[in-house]
Amino acid sequence: MATAEPVAARKRRPKGHFAAARAKRPRGSGRQLEAGMRGILITCNMNERKCVGEAYSLLGEYGDLLYGPEQFSDPEERLSGSEKEEDEDDVEAALKKEVDQIRTSTEQKLRRFQSVESGANNVVFIRTRGIEPENLVHHILKDMHATKKKKTRVILRMLPISGTCKAFMEDMKKYTETFFEPWFKAPNKGTFQIVYKARNNSHMSREEVIKELAGIVGSLNPENKVDLNNPQYTIVVEIIKNVCCLSVVRDYVLFRKYNLQEVVKSNKEDAQQNPSTVTEEQNLTVVKPETEEEKSSEEVKQESKSEGEIQAESKGNDTLTV
Q1: What is the pLDDT of residues 213-236, one digit of tens each?
Q2: Who contacts 295 (Cβ-Cβ below 8 Å, separation ≥6)?
Q3: Of residues 57, 199, 45, the one with CA closest to residue 115
Q4: How many Å apart are CA 73 and CA 67, to the nearest integer?
Q5: Residues 295, 189: Cα–Cα separation, whole Å
Q6: Which string of DSSP letters, residue by residue, matches 262-284?
Q7: 113 close to 126: Cβ distance less than 8 angstroms
Q8: I need a labelling partner for 161 at 20 to 30 A (CA). Which of 58, 115, 193, 203 fits?
Q9: 316: which residues sit within 8 A by CB, 6+ positions away?
Q10: Dihedral sign, CA of 222, 226, 231, 237?
Q11: CA–CA dist 34, 40 (Å, integer)
Q12: Residue 21 belongs to what H/E stretch?
């Protein structure tokens, strides 16, 4: 009996406890990144909630420009034609109201941009519907690169995700054989590089993934060549847990690895941060064409300097051979 008393005396949690716990979960719980989704992967710095808000604002702005305003159905219009029937039969009215709520919740899930749980810290995934993620993100970066106008504070990188599959080597090979075709299958061809990042995943090998994917690109067209300096296409591989996110993007180097904070910086700011980097324009201003007189006088100076060095060296070294 002594052992049974603590169990019997244990207090039961109130009925509203689990409902309150569900309410405290972060926004987007229950909707997680999974294979088959398309969207935009966004990295931030310790403020995911604000990152989601900035993403909705930025994507909404450019989404309306490229694809027109998003259309929403009006619940009042759907209910206006059945108001009289609802008054006549309360049961039928309650049933219709419940069906309408389900339909409304379904429409909300099918919005153009919808945040889902990415499965990694400081990473936000925005699922897209009815748009091409790579075209939208490229348009955003192209505009920001041209105007140098900063539009976000916490968003760092914004990567379009054109396809997802399970993060296992066999699944990735089978998926990418068709996924890469629009860019690399003959007669299409181009130079490329592969960038790889894994989060919360330890069973995938970076070297193996890059080797296998590069082999698939080469098999689609032998004229596809690797270029690590300034490739036409960059194959982005982002692995989070057991999901592999893929995309093929343009202007990866020009747009600073699709970093929204870096792409708006001017060439002067880049030079201050990287003093060793000299732009082509700066090189052109430093190198000036020499006139014939300057050239001849420079040659005389070099000859006299060389003769002096040889004489000085011969004095100090008797075994010098010319």
Answers
A1: 999 999 999 999 999 999 999 999
A2: none
A3: 57
A4: 17
A5: 47
A6: TTT--HHHHHHH-TT---HHHHH
A7: yes
A8: 203
A9: none
A10: positive
A11: 13
A12: helix 17-24
Say yes or no to pLDDT of 86 above 60.
Answer: no
* DSSP letter for each residue of 167-233: SSHHHHHHHHHHHTHHHHSTT---EEEEEEEEES--S--HHHHHHHHHHHHHHH-TT-EE-SSS-SE
Residue 139 predicted with pLDDT over 90? yes
Q: Does residue 7 sit in helix, strand or coil?
A: helix
Cα separation, 75 vs 1, in Å, equals: 61
Handedness of CA 60, 254, 173, 206 (dihedral sign): negative
pLDDT digits (tens, 9 = 90+) for 261-279: 999 998 766 555 554 443 3
- Report pLDDT for 211: 97
Q: Provide the residue count of the chain.
A: 322
3-state class of 32 per DSSP?
Answer: strand
Q: What is the amino acid identity at position 246? A: L
CA distance 252 to 258: 6
